[in-house]
Amino acid sequence: MKTKLLLLLVFILPIVAIAQGRSRQILNGRVVADSLKVEGLSVYNVSSNIGAVTDKEGGFTIYARPKDTLFFSSVTYRSVRLVLTERDVLEKPLIIRLDVNYIMLDEVVITPRTLTGQLDKDSKKTKTMLITSGIDSYKVIETDIPRPKANVNTALPSSVTGSTLTGVNFGEVYKLVFKKRKRKDAGEIYGTKDAKPFSVAVKERFTYYFFTQMLKIPKEEIGLFLNFCDKGKESYALLDPKKEFELTDYLVGKSKEYLEKDK
């Protein structure tokens, strides 16, 4: 009896070890919501801290495996949390259906002063107020305002230097480490002491597909792009897991600035 039990354990243990050590694979999916286009929706793997964004057709690609939890969030649609199964991973593509997040108004008041749509009539009925600061704009234009001279670092974009005519504040750009402290009303906040730099943390959180296909950033320029996005405390605060959607929007906006600056 003991021999049979020992043999059974010998066969079962390797199978369990293989199942637990199964690596994540690329999961292709598509998000749909009635007839609306689902673009720019955040797809976040809670189990691995990896995120992606849907394209114009609602498609996305992310590393995942069975039992991983995917979180789909957007302002327009209701958030959905999905625990992947073996069947979900095998589907190509995995279809996710979302509901539109409708906002119901408590009350709509229609007054007798409703506009007719005719500009000449509506402008005469609408009361206006003249606002003036008392400053002569012509004198301001003619005034020669002295501007301080500073060394220009042309290797960095104007969004980092603050202007094409000013120098770089390296103390603010390279403040990558904050100290964690307690906030009385909101718990912990994120700082940069004993923490990873912004560029390293973001690169670990998002896939190469997100940078090259969604943001159109060349693979060899991902590091430069993340340095371009690093704004010290302002950007580092977005690494809070609760601000995953805001971080994604921030990277999408910065990618457009980065691609436009060399044109």
TrEMBL record:
It holds the Pfam family CarbopepD_reg_2. InterPro entries: CarboxyPept-like_regulatory (IPR008969). This is Carboxypeptidase-like regulatory domain-containing protein. It comes from Flavobacterium cerinum.
